[in-house]
Amino acid sequence: MYDSNRFGGPPKYYPIMADVTDAACVVVGGGPVAWRKIAGLVDCGARVVVVSPDGVPELETAAAIGAVVWHRRRYRSGDLAGAALAFAATNDAAVNAAVREEARREGVLLNAAYDADQGNFLVPSVVRRGRLVLAVSTSGSSPKLARRIAAELERTYGPEYGPYTELLERLRAFALASGADEERRLRALGALLETNALERLGGGASLEEVESECIALLKRKLLNT
Predict the structure, then answer these.
(1) How many CA atoms lie within 13 A of 61 on its CB side?
(2) Whole-number Å distance between alpha carbons of 118 and 112
(3) Which residues, in sequence order, are CB contacts of 4 under 8 Å at separation 6+?
(4) Phi, psi at 182, each rounded to 5°
(5) What are phi and psi of 115, to 5 degrees?
């Protein structure tokens, strides 16, 4: 596996948005820290396997309804077989180290919850507003600072951004289906960002109402020569 430290200095992480739908993800650990990883994976549609002799009540509930597969035992070599992602999230340094070694042998991307430098990917603090995803990371130096900044973003980008990004996706699909050339589509879609659609959605207007108005504007822009 590529060693991010071989050139000296701390790793420089490459930001990426990953589709983990139906991907096998193994979380070793069942405490509060592990649960935050588990909940995020379940929310994104991953197939989550948890290895831990015990767990928080939320994990009990998730296992009971079939949202996760929970092996109620200690980690053992081979538990990462077939995993796309792995998470070492126990309070046992020896177990976390064993998970790390298996991940390296098998070429599985690993998040080390208690020691970021021991893994090769981080889980940022995230704010979700529909299709809008805002992720903040301090490259492991201060998760608390990342959460503080995420809280500021959460206040800045309110819930109206959820329907707004859904609106933009619908308008993009309409433009693509129009048959207009790329330059005209880009110009027309760019003009929509200058409208008051976001403010109207924030003020209580329905998505369908605002969409109808924007479609009318989009048609005029696409027809302009």
Answers:
(1) 7
(2) 6
(3) 11, 12, 120
(4) -60, -45
(5) -155, 90
Mean pLDDT, residues 187-213 taken together: 95
Whether residue 103 contacts residue 91, with contact meaning beta carbons closer than 8 Å, is answered with: no
- Residue identified by tokens 């995420």 is 150
Q: Which of 31, 82, 32, 21 minimizes the C-alpha distance to 52?
A: 31
| Residues 174-198 as b or e (16 or more Cβ within 10 Å = b) | bbeeeebeeebbeebbeebeeeebb
Please give the average per-residue pLDDT across 94-120, as a whole number: 94
Asked whether 42 and 68 are in contact (CB, 8 A), the reply is yes
- DSSP state, residue 141: S
Say if residues 29 and 87 touch (Cβ distance below 8 Å). yes
In degrees and rounded to multiples of 5, residue 25 shows phi and psi of: -130, 125
- In this structure, are residues 109 and 84 in contact, taking their beta carbons and an 8 Å threshold? yes
pTM of the entire predicted model: 0.82
What are the DSSP calls for 145-210, one per residue?
HHHHHHHHHHHHS-TTHHHHHHHHHHHHHHHHHTT--HHHHHHHHHHHTTSSHHHHHHTT--HHHH
* Residue the block writes with tokens 């046992």: 92
Give residue-wise pLDDT tens across range 32-71: 999 999 999 999 999 999 999 999 999 999 999 999 999 9
What's 64-114 look like in SS3? HCCCEEEECCCCCCCCCCCCCEEEECCCCHHHHHHHHHHHHHHCCEEEECC
Token look-up 């479609």 returns 215
